[in-house]
Amino acid sequence: MNQTQIESVIQPQELQHRLATGQTACVIDVRSPAEYNTVHVPGAKLMPLDQLDAAALRREQKEETSPVYVLCQTGGRARRAITKLEAAGVNGCVLVEGGTQAWIDAGLPVTRGASRVLPIMRQVQITVGSLSAVGAILALTVSPLFAIVPLVLGSGLFIAGVTGFCGLAVLLAKMPWNQAGSGSAACGVPDSKGS
Known about the structure:
The protein is of the alpha/beta class. Helices cover about 45% and strands about 10% of the residues.
């Protein structure tokens, strides 16, 4: 697997313990606004990976040694975010192992919103599944050349599985229905919702 090796990792339970004992922490969530609005770790600040301004976060970092906890849904985007942050000079980046899903699975408290948008990966599954089915039907009824559609989509899924990067997920995250409520403050600065 071609993933960046992250040196500092924390389990969700340990991070929750640190937050509960009053330790100052910068927790950033690099998922899409729609995913964040559906459910997020209390106090986590939304900084979508495709909009992540690592230099601005570096300027906001109060102490060079204070940790910056980074999470996404399961860990892939958080790893890429940490690579970007470290390249900009942000010190103390810590990957939250398993991301928001591991946090939920551990039964830790979350903030739930009223978002009715499907999670990005479900949108990917629906898009790939429906386009593959249409391509297969067209290949059987119109022209065998339409078999290229499911072949390309299947290859894309294989590459996404191997690399941890899904171009379709990135594209879908930029769609208008996934951008609602994207305004969120940087770490250390309260946002308008107070979450």
